[in-house]
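Design request, tokens follow.
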């Protein structure tokens, strides 16, 4: 079992940066592939970024490529999402997710564990 707790969301203006954190506990952090997803009101949950268990590969949605960076800190059992140049269309609840496996994963149904989400609101 893995517990995930997101933090770092907030209300910001367009163009600024935010860093989301996802603290994990339970089974060894290093054995899990991690991902970030987001869900805006009235929309389906969508993939944002993913990272492999060893941090060797990362993958991003086209809508955030070049602006967002996913990373993980094994000493802190935490995965981060650095979000730069935020846009109003980035407004959503952001979720982190975890699953065992050697690859990165981009579909919500591929993940086993989910956090409760953190709200990010970007005003224009």
């Amino acid at each position: 079992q893995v517990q995930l707790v997101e933090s770092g969301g907030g209300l910001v203006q367009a163009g600024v940066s935010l860093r989301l954190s996802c603290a994990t506990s339970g089974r060894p952090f290093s054995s899990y592939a991690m991902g970030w997803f987001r869900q805006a009101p009235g929309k389906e949950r969508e993939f944002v970024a993913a990272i492999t268990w060893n941090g060797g590969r990362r993958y991003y949605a086209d809508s955030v490529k070049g602006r967002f960076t996913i990373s993980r800190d094994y000493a802190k059992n935490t995965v981060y999402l650095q979000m730069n140049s935020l846009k109003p269309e980035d407004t959503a609840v952001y979720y982190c997710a975890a699953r065992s496996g050697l690859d990165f994963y981009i579909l919500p149904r591929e993940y086993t564990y989910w956090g409760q989400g953190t709200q990010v609101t970007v005003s224009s």
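Comment from the thread starter after seeing the answer: thanks! The CA atoms of residues 37 and 47 lie 5 Å apart.
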